[in-house]
Design brief:
Length: 108
């Protein structure tokens, strides 16, 4: 993110490339800097969502998922093995989210 907006080379959009940005997932309490991360990710995710149609073409909104997107979810080792990276069960929950943004662009 640069200047409060998702950062990428704007030239690629003028050449027809579509840009989808993933929303930021939480950090568990065992991870250094978790409190600041979880506070800043709310702002960052709002900026990502607001950039759709302006500077990016879509958002894979993993953070909006009612299971994986909650701050407390990152402490659940059945979802996030180390408090940061999703394990297979977490990935299974997140997997259907990315195609939503992709399919929206394909349908447009």
């Amino acid at each position: 993110m640069v200047g409060g907006a998702p950062s990428h080379d704007p030239q690629i959009r003028t050449e027809g490339v579509k840009v989808i940005v993933a929303a930021i997932l939480p950090k568990g309490t065992a991870q250094a800097g978790y409190a600041a991360h979880n506070t800043l990710r709310v702002t960052a995710n709002n900026l990502i969502r607001a950039a759709v149609g302006v500077t990016i073409d879509g958002c894979s909104d993993f953070a909006a998922n009612a299971t994986m997107g909650l701050d407390a979810a990152a402490n659940d080792t059945s979802l996030y093995g180390d408090g940061l990276h999703p394990v297979d069960a977490g990935h299974a929950i997140l997997e259907p989210i990315a195609p939503v943004a992709i399919n929206e662009l394909l349908a447009a």
